[in-house]
Each structure stands twice: as C-alpha cells, then as structure tokens.
C-alpha cells in the first residue's frame, strides 16, 4: 500500500503530539493493513487450495473423460467385431443354405424322376390288377361252374348216415360197418329157430348211402363232407340240409352240437364257413347281405324262435308264396346279420325259446321240427352280377312210429302231424325225382316252408341218424328204408339264382 508523502513530510509544520498521533494512526492503519493482508493471504491460500482442488477435479474429470472416451471407443470396437462376426455367420449360413438348397434341388430332381417312374409302374400295376381281377372273376365263375358240376355228379340230393355211439361207447352187434367201405351199413337180425332143431338164422339188411359215419366220426369229419354244399349256398344255389331219425338218435347233436369248438355241429360250422368265404369274396368286389330266421313247426303250427316279446303277444304265422315264388312267413322275425357271433347269439335265443316251450310241454322239442334259414344275397357291382340263395338247416321231429292204440288226445294229434309231415317230405322228394307235374308241397307246413330249398334249383342233403341200441332195431330199419328211398331220388339239375 502506498503512503502519501504529502501527509508525512508536507510543508505544514506539525506538532510532535500531532505526529505521534498520526504515527499511531498510521500504525493502526498499518496493522489494519497487515491484518487485511493476512486475511487476504489467508483468502489467497484458501483460493489457492480451491484452485488446486479445482485443478485436481479438472484432472480427474479429464481422466474420466479420457476413460469414457476409451470406453466408447472399445464399445464401438466391440460393436464392430460383433457386426463382423454376425456378418460372417450370416455369410456362412447363406452359403450353407445355398449348398443345402442345391443338394435338395438335385434330390428333388432325382425324386421327380423316381416319381415319374413310379407313376408309370403304378399305372402298369393298375392295368395288371384290373387284368388279374378279370382273371380272378373268371376263375371264380369257373370255380363255381366246376364246383357245381362236381356237386351234380355227386348228386343234388345226397344222404349221409350217422350212427350214434352207445351210451357206454362202441357199437352194438346188429350194426355192421365194413372197415373198407364208408358207404355201406348193414343191419343184422338174428332170428331164433322156432323149432330149436335148426340153428338161428341171420337176416341182413344192406343199405348204401353217399357216406356212412360210424360212432367215432367227429363233428369236424362230418362237416368236411358237407362244407362243399355250404359253399354252393354262397355261389347262389339253394341248399337244404336236414337231420332225420328217431328221438335220441343224434339229430340235434349233428345239426347244433354243443358250444365247445370241437363239438359244434353243422349249423355253427356252416355259418362260420359262410362268413369267412363272404369276407374273402369281398376282395373280389362281392358284397353280401344275410338274413336269419328260426322257426319251429309243432302240430302244424309255426312258432317264431327269435321272438323276444311277451308270450301273450305272440303273433300267429302263415306261410305265403310271392309272385316270384319266394316263400315267406308272416309276422316272423327276419334278422339281418353280419357276423358269425350274431348268428350264434340268435341260435342261443332260439334254444331258449325252445326250452321254454319244452318246460311247458315235456319232450316237445323231439316232437317239433326246427328250421334255421339264412337268406344270402350277393352283389358284385363292378361286374353287374347278383346272386340270391337260401341255406336251410333243419332238425326234424323224432321219426319213431307210435302204435295208434298207445297214443291218445294231444299225443295222437302230435303223432299224426309228425308222421304226416315226414311222409309228405318223402312224397315231395320222390315227386321231384320222378319229375311229376304236381308236387304236393302244400300238404304239410314243413314241405311248404322248404319249397324253395327242395327241387330243381336246390341241393339237398339228408342225414339219417341212427340209434345203435338193439331195442331201436325196428326204428333204425324204418329210418334207413326212408333214407334209402330218398337216396334213390335224383333231383333235376340245379341252376344258380344268378341275375
Ligand atoms: N355222434 C355222437 N357222439 C357222441 N354223442 C352223441 C352223438 N350223437 C348224439 N349224441 C348224444 O346222444 C344224445 C341224444 O342226441 P340228440 O339230442 O342229438 O338226439 P336227437 O335225435 O336230436 O333227439 P331229439 O329228437 O329228442 O331232439 C345226446 O346226449 C347227444 O349228446
């Protein structure tokens, strides 16, 4: 700080006390100044510190800035690297896709060639299939023709004899079956000498049939013989198979058998064969519809064995013949069936219905005929061929003859009905064989019902069932005589119901 000279050494003479005061003023001022300088210095120091701190902050900020700049630079670099890597991957993928595309294009080209070849092959195969179907159809028709010729050669009416085993097994002496010949049966009757002087004489009754089955013959063996006839039913021929014989001779065993596979009879086996064969023919374009019915004829009255309603609501039935000669029964259950099991169910229902009636009337089933019918309609749309036939399987009433004196009332009525219908069956068959102009079908319900299945357009098979007990000798002889008459008949050539 500058001190004014005028103030200290000026022209005006001053007194010493004045000077003293002034000096002390000056000193005070100097102290003030010093204090101020001190505080200014202190402020300066503070400012310096502040400057140093600011400088440090600036340096730090510069460092931070530099770091951030570096970071930004690294980030940019990282982004670039990432971009380059992605680009490389993209280029690589593009390349891979292009490679794959070109591989697939060549595979596609190969496939197209294969497809064209396959299409040609398929069309060639289609032609072959059509040709083979034609051949198969022609083969099937030829098979039917040959099959029918064989059946005709065997005879359109055939008689098989089946001998039931004795209850204790084996066979009685009076029935002889030669081991070398399965077509002959001999009934031997030993007649005692009345005088006792001559030895007993033996009278033999010989019968010949298309086949004689002994007591050991299995159900399978028996069915094998008639399975060809069953095939005829599918080929469009009416087929009728019935079992004739005295009560207990094995008619029901032959026709129905038991539910165990090995012991099944003709009806379940025929049904099985028909459904199997129909399935096979399906591959050749054949479609079949089957309708089953089961009826009982008792005392010349018809009873629906498939009826499921209330007993009190049972309808009455009449046999009707339509203009196209088809025989139907009014109010009867005609059940469409499409499987073997369905038919087996119906057979069970029929048996239940029969046994209900059986309980009400002892032994009734032996005294009634039961007729199972399967109507078969086949169509081959592609070939415009149709066929229609009926397979008729009949378990006849017991054929035993009762003495008129032994039967009265209801029994007499039953006996007359059974004898009437069975003898009329024989009359109808021989009238057909003799080509008589009048065939008395309508004389009994049985022959009227079987009209479509007997005669020119049908194949008939009769089982004559034999009871081997010695006390059945008379009935056995009668049965064999009846069967023998039938066997002598040759019914006119059958023609298939084809349209
Ligand atoms: N070939 C056979 N082998 C073994 N058992 C048989 C044979 N034939 C019949 N039977 C048995 O003999 C008995 C009588 O047979 P089945 O009932 O079939 O006679 P049927 O002639 O039908 O009598 P019905 O007129 O009373 O109905 C049955 O127990 C049956 O199982």
From TrEMBL:
Full protein name: Kinesin-like protein
Subcellular location: Cytoplasm, Cytoskeleton
A Pfam family matched in the record: Kinesin
Binding site for ATP: 245-252
Naturally occurring in which organism (per UniProt): Sander lucioperca
Entry's Gene Ontology molecular function annotations: ATP binding; microtubule binding; microtubule motor activity
Domain of life: Eukaryota
InterPro entries to which the protein is assigned, alphabetical: Kinesin-like_fam, Kinesin_motor_CS, Kinesin_motor_dom, Kinesin_motor_dom_sf, P-loop_NTPase
Domain Kinesin motor: 156-489
Transmembrane segments: 77-97
GO cellular component terms, semicolon-separated: microtubule
GO biological process terms held by the UniProt record: microtubule-based movement
Sorted UniProt keywords: ATP-binding, Coiled coil, Cytoplasm, Cytoskeleton, Membrane, Microtubule, Motor protein, Nucleotide-binding, Transmembrane, Transmembrane helix
Family: Belongs to the TRAFAC class myosin-kinesin ATPase superfamily. Kinesin family. KIN-14 subfamily.
Stretches assigned to coiled coil: 23-50, 101-135
